Amino acid sequence: EKGGYEHFMLKEIFEQPKSIADCLRGRLDPKSGRLVLGGLRDYMNKFNNAERIIITACGTSWHAGLVAEYLFEEFARVPVEVEYASEFRYRNPVITDKDFIIAISQSGETADTLAAIELAKSKGATIFGVCNVVGSSIPRTTHAGCYTHAGPEIGVASTKAFTAQISVLTMMALKLGYQRGTLPESKYILMLHELADIPAKVEKALQTNDAVKKIAEKYKDARNMLYLGRGYNFPVALEGALKLKEISYIHAEGYPAAEMKHGPIALIDEEMPVIFIATLDSSYEKVVSNIQEVKARKGKVIAVVTEGDKQVKALADHVIEIPPTNEAFTPLLSVIPLQLLSYHIAVMRGCNVDQPRNLAKSVTVE
Ligand code: M6R
User: Fold this and answer.
1) What is the whole-number distance in angstroms between the Cα of residue 165 and the centre of ligand 1?
2) Does 107 contact ligand 1 (Cβ within 6 A)?
3) Is residue 4 pLDDT above 90, yes or no?
4) pLDDT, tens digit, for every residue of 150-167?
5) What is the average per-residue pLDDT within 289-294?
6) What is the pLDDT of residues 259-283, one digit of tens each?
7) Cβ neighbours for 186, distance < 8 A, ≥ 6 positions apart
8) Is 361 a catalytic site residue?
9) Test site for ligand 1: of 60, 117, 130, most ligand atoms within 8 A of the Cβ
10) 3-state class (DSSP) for residue 83
11) Are 108 and 114 in contact (CB under 8 A)?
12) Quick one: 349 exposed, middle or buried, by C-beta within 10 A (0-12, 13-18, 19+)?
């Protein structure tokens, strides 16, 4: 049942204020300063004492893992590695019983992720699952885990599962930081309040839909697109590009914005749309210079900015405004217009949005 929406993907994009709230419900309580993650309870010692966190996943779930790398390192000061499950499983990786492995999967059935888990388990590591489908294979093989509670995701392009994964990983990082003493209590409480406000801010980010649709109209015939972001928004750039590729069949690449000058800048001409995530955060000024570099080469700039932005507005061809939040939580907002952009472009190109060619919802073969 598409609930009045034309496609499951659009329904799932618009469900995000609710799916994120469902994910936070019963876990996050800013007033009492409590963060309860039932699945962690029996493994809290292992988690607190982990010398390293290894995150393994595929596709969009791997992008959520990259966001988590920034979160865990910033708040809990634990070294994190993020691994494509398909590479990790065959690399003879160094894993010990001091490692805490987080496997992320919407379906809980991805073959490579399952195999990576088995390998890490055989080396004595603790395996924690972040999955959406209850009772699927991954939650059954991990030592412990946390469901994302996003509800069934039918569209092959992952949307609400991604934001729910980030929500769970954010709670884990804040909890770990607080317990390890690397995140001071006052800041911890502030962050909990800010996180609780995210569903309402996602609702506002969804109001960009009409503006995004107009931009989609202009760029639907592009042959290539480049997505650039820095810091917490670098994984969002990768995710935006993946969304566009998989449902519209337009070639797109995501890059950390500063890497542009090491190669991709050669692609820029008046035909090349470049999507920047240029929110007001610690890398804002640097991203602004990257936008100037693209404009100097006549590229078209579409920028996701923070409400009230002036500097980028003066440079970009189009801006999409999202509400301000703590830098660490911006991916939950900045990804929304990118999901919408790929959706509208794919519909305008007559593509089968919910079931793109050559793709399956869960990849159960390696
Ligand atoms: O079910 P999983 O999260 O393990 O799936 C991983 C990838 O196959 C998945 O995220 C894929 O990249 C999506 N089609 C992306 O939208």
Assistant:
1) 12
2) yes
3) yes
4) 999 999 999 999 999 999
5) 97
6) 999 999 999 999 999 999 999 999 9
7) none
8) yes
9) 60
10) strand
11) no
12) middle
CB distance 58 to ligand 1 below 6 Å: yes
Pick from 335, 303, 341, 339: which is nearest to 319 by CA? 303
**DSSP track, 5-41:** -SSHHHHHHHTHHHHHHHHHTTTEETTTTEE--GGGG
Q: Which amino acid is at 43?
A: Y
The CA distances from residue 232 to 55, 95, 283, 314, 324, in Å, are: 16, 27, 10, 24, 14
Pairing of β 318-322 and β 126-131: unpaired
Contact 130, 103 (CB under 8 A): yes
Cα of 231 vs its chain's centroid, Å: 12
Q: How far does the centroid of ligand 1 lie from the alpha carbon of residue 36, in Å?
A: 27
* Ligand 1 site, residue 113, Cβ cutoff 6 A: yes
Centroid of ligand 1 to alpha carbon of 276 (angstroms): 24
Which residue's CA is the closest to the ligand 1 atom numbered 9?
59
Q: How far apart are CA 188 and CA 183, in angstroms?
A: 6
- Residue in this structure with the two tokens 């003493």, named with its chain if needed: 181
Indicate if ipTM > 0.95. yes
The one catalytic residue in 187, 204, 295, 361 is: 361
Secondary structure (3-state) at 103: strand
Atom of ligand 1 nearest to the CA of 107: 1
Answer for the pair 237, 254: CB distance below 8 angstroms, yes or no.
yes
Residue 1 has pLDDT above 90, yes or no: no
CA distances from 101 to 95, 234, 354 (A): 9, 22, 31
Residue with the two structure tokens 């035909």: 271
Q: Does the beta carbon of 156 lie inside 6 Å of ligand 1? A: yes
The answer to whether the pTM exceeds 0.95 is yes
Q: What is the DSSP letter of 185?
A: H
DSSP state of 339: H
